[in-house]
Write a structure and sequence with these properties.
Distance between the termini: 38 Å
GO biological process, one term: flavin-containing compound metabolic process
Organism: Maudiozyma humilis (Sour dough yeast)
Helix content: 40-55%
Structural class: alpha/beta
Strand order of the largest sheet: 2-1-3-8-7-6
GO molecular function: FAD diphosphatase activity
CATH architecture of the largest domain: 3-Layer(aba) Sandwich
InterPro entries: MoaB/Mog-like_dom_sf, MoaB/Mog_dom
Strand content: 15-25%
Protein name: Fpy1 protein
CATH superfamily of the largest domain: MoaB/Mog-like domain
Number of domains: 2
Shape: elongated
Length: 273
């Protein structure tokens, strides 16, 4: 059974100061879940060299699959490429493939003054060396996913670009980490109950204790939904234990006077403001 561990680093002062909402980490979490990858850490940091370098250094030996989003534009605070290169002891240099693709798609020499052109090509100045591979996934996009050691993957922060590139990377991720084409390793069931968390806490702990004896990967959680009059119990585990997870769901229905709800119904409730 594959045990790929993943981490996500959101880079950008604009996330920390509340200017924009981070949706990339949630999209990545769903991506990992669908492939059976175990996402273990999500962290948001600013456009700060020391933070970026120290964060990546702390993660690189713990996780097999690390993504970063943000900080790869043309302005002074876009320092992700150079910081990640520094983390791995690599230089940065203009990637000629990226530069050519930029020229083909937007004719920068024909429309930008020298300083703007220099800043524009900052986005083509990538970590370089034999440990680096740049994935150009779509003919209509010049931006690559820059990968170091097939471990760290550097994405743009713009959600539309990030989501499209991440989906496009799926077959590469499957190949790199030897993930099956058909089997989704994790499944999850939800049970809705009108009982409060205090009322279900003890029995929920007993269910978790029983489940852990079957597999440490089975996680039982409770999610209160303020103002709705009900809470949701989550039962998560590996697909190989699906029958047992269904038994736990029926047990939760019985013990908490609950009923099963779909993933879509739970998403709708969880993401309402």
């Amino acid at each position: 059974m594959n045990k790929v561990r993943a981490a996500c680093v959101i880079i950008g002062d604009e996330v920390l100061n509340g200017k924009i909402n981070d949706t990339n980490s949630r999209f990545f979490a769903k991506f990992c879940f669908s492939l059976g990858i175990k996402l273990q850490e999500i962290i948001t940091i600013g456009d700060d060299e020391e933070q970026i370098v120290s964060t990546l250094r702390s993660m690189r030996d713990k996780y097999q699959f690390i993504i970063t989003t943000g900080g790869i534009g043309s302005t002074h605070d876009d320092i992700t490429y150079e910081c990640i290169a520094k983390t791995f002891g690599l230089p940065c240099a203009i990637d000629e493939t990226c530069k050519r693709r930029m020229q083909e798609k937007s004719n920068p020499e024909g429309r930008l003054d020298p300083q703007a052109l220099k800043d524009y090509y900052k986005m083509a100045t990538l970590p370089a060396g034999s440990r680096v591979e740049n994935y150009y996934l779509y003919d209509d996009l010049w931006v690559p996913i820059c990968s170091i050691d097939h471990k760290v993957f550097i994405f743009p922060g713009i959600p539309q670009l990030f989501e499209r590139l991440l989906v496009g990377l799926t077959p590469i991720v499957r190949s790199l980490f030897n993930l099956g084409e058909k089997d989704i390793e994790y499944v999850r069931f939800f049970v809705k109950t009108t009982k409060t968390e205090s009322q279900i806490s003890h029995n929920l702990k007993l269910i978790q204790e029983d489940a852990t004896k079957v597999s440490p990967e089975i996680k039982i959680g409770s999610y209160p939904h303020y103002g709705t009059g009900f809470n949701t119990i989550s039962i998560l585990g590996e697909k190989k234990d699906e029958k047992y997870l269904e038994e736990l769901m029926r047990r939760a229905e019985k013990e908490f006077d609950g009923q099963q709800v779909s993933n879509e119904e739970e998403d709708d409730v969880s993401n309402k403001r």
